[in-house]
Sequence to fold (267 residues):
Amino acid sequence: MDKKQIQALFEQAKKWILEAGAHIRDVIDEPLYIDTKSNPNDLVTHMDKNTEEFFANKIKETYPEHLMLGEEGFGDDVESLDGTIWIIDPIDGTMNFVHQKRNFAISIGIYHDGVGEVGLIYNVMEDVLYSVIRRQGAYKNGVELPKLDENRNLDTSIMVLNSYLVCENPKINYKKVQALVKKIRGTRSYGSAALELAFVAEGCVDGYLTLKLAPWDVAAGSILVEEVGGTVTQANGQKLDMLTNNTVLACNTRIHEKLISEYIELK
Ligand code: 2AM
Ligand code: CA
Fold:
């Protein structure tokens, strides 16, 4: 895919994400039809489904040769990353959407032959769009984000961590995470992986560690973070796999190695 085609794809995706977001804002106070998925706290609403269907229809109409991988099942059965694939979370942070009517995002990552070329994360209620075209800069509402601070160290870092990481947890040595909490300057938890990755890219937090994200949670945010010089891997340092769930460590590159070698021990 050449530069011109990628630019055109970006413009199209941007138009659709802003349109979908504007619609959600218009109907935000209407009644929600809420369902649960894997467990009583795993929420989905008719807006998650309608929004994903909106993208699925647009993509099929406009780019019949492209595939879509989405959270709510309107996409394709994607078994390889060959070709052009739109990886979409129609509402990332559904619990926030339901309980708070804010702090959620639409996330779109467009991958070509396994490489993330375009990323868009739209904080719908704040009308803030994070966007990236690989090697052409990362932006927040059209203003370019600077590269991450090269002097960052753990003592002065804020990290996005969720409470599961510090409770007795069979998947990670939680005592090491507790030591990390003491080491760093502060912790935050926002409840939308896409926004949490965007905040790493923005440099307003320095790292994000979590034990289970789906491809659509991380597809756009990882492109954004890497564009500003950050590092995004699994929590053991291995490359992310966009076809499966992953543990995720996204952070300022300066603290990545120390986090993995001293504070993250997966079980
Ligand atoms: P969602 O709202 O789109 O489901 C919550 O901390 C973050 O983790 C949200 O981005 C949420 O995405 C995601 N998430 C919640 N449960 C998940 C699961 N079982 N697998 C992967 N990601 C999940
Ligand atoms: Ca979702």
